[in-house]
Predict the 3D structure of the following.
Amino acid sequence: MPLNPPPALPDDSARASLQKAMQDAESTSAKVKGKLNSAAITGAKVAGAGAAVAAAPVAVVTAPVWAPAALIATPVVYEGSKLAGGAAIGAAKWAVEKVEHANAKQEEKANQRFAVQNADMISALSQPLPGGLTTNPAVRNLLADHIKGSATQMSPEEAVQMAAIGEHIYKALSEGKEAGPNGLEVNVPGRDAPVLVPPGNFAAKAVSWHIMAAAAQSNLQRPEQPGVKRDDMTNSGTFILKDPGNRVYNFLNANPMVAERMSSHYEERLDHDRKVPIAGKTLQKGCDDYQNKFPGGGGALLFDKLKGGEIFVKFEHAGTPKPTVKEGHDTKTHTAMRGVLAANRWVEHTFSFLESLNAGAGDPNKVVRQEDIHKGEMKAAVYEPYLATLKAATDAGIITKREAEAMKSHARANGIPSVQGGLEIMKERQQAAGDGLDPAKSQSFSLAAQVLERNIDYKLQSMGQANNDLGIQRRGGE
């Protein structure tokens, strides 16, 4: 969820890419029709019209013949694999739990070594900034509530301390500081010399809890709206923040625990084109905490830089960590244990992803703030009314069926800016067509468009004016 976004305005880049997608759909349609016509003519010349007609039923009958067999075979194989693999899965879980128990002791020892090495920095930055977020008792209470409803293993007291440290770090970054070879220099009120903060999981957790404290402050600033329960302290969703010069990104990325991982969040807005060779999947950055002390899901931080000096962050139950990553205060034994747990995290991440497809269902503690409009709170309010509007526009002859499909796909990838751009295009075409459209069908489109526009306005205003004034484009419910 953006810290904190404005109402999404029709975006020129989103509209331009939408128009291209619509043109491509129509161009593809024309090419396919041309090829089909050419093939039909050639077939008729070679085999004769009678042979072409006789061949048609064969193609129709052939497809269903093998499909049921494949569908029947699939559950048989699946059931067999479940029985065969059950015992192995149980043994693997037992082994992982043993390693997790042993690793917990290693994590504590590593934390103690870090605390000794950085005692002065931790002591100095644990004092909140004058007027800082954690000096507000209401913010501290909201952090405690977030912890109760989330998977994080951070205690409320630790969270407040880390949020205070993170606010110092964030202030230094916002003032233009960059991490040097020995760390980030942070000035502390009342001290002559700055303290050094080494990039690593400690600093990443501190920045993360500062972000959650800022979300708590955002909740407090938002006036109550009848019938609306709005919570910026998501434990299932994303945040977007301003990051001029990518300083926050660079500091987080300097963490030796960070590794690249495949992910598709905000692909259209990323400020890079790193992809997996051959497969073409987008690579983003992430780090795992084996004590599960990040906010939200607790286990992992996913982040990446966006165009226009912005960054998105997402707190997850588990990421896909590299098994060999370590920090300077980690021992070889500790790193080896993490290597075993890293493989298990890949499995947990897969299950977390599958659960996210039905995010929040039946869980009163879930605060779902997804950037996709075809999921979560935006699905019923924006996505489904947009589909109804596209159908009404198709029925009225404002757009073609292929254009409607292209617009639907574009909206799933680009969110609210695409929807708003699509509405503009359709209304312009309706106006240009004038009396050439069926009056009743044109009116049906107008009504559908009005409902959609009101829904978008209502949803965006429910996010809060303070959020909307920050100038960050909102894609969905983030």
About this structure: The chain has a mean pLDDT of 78. The chain has 13 helices and nine strands.
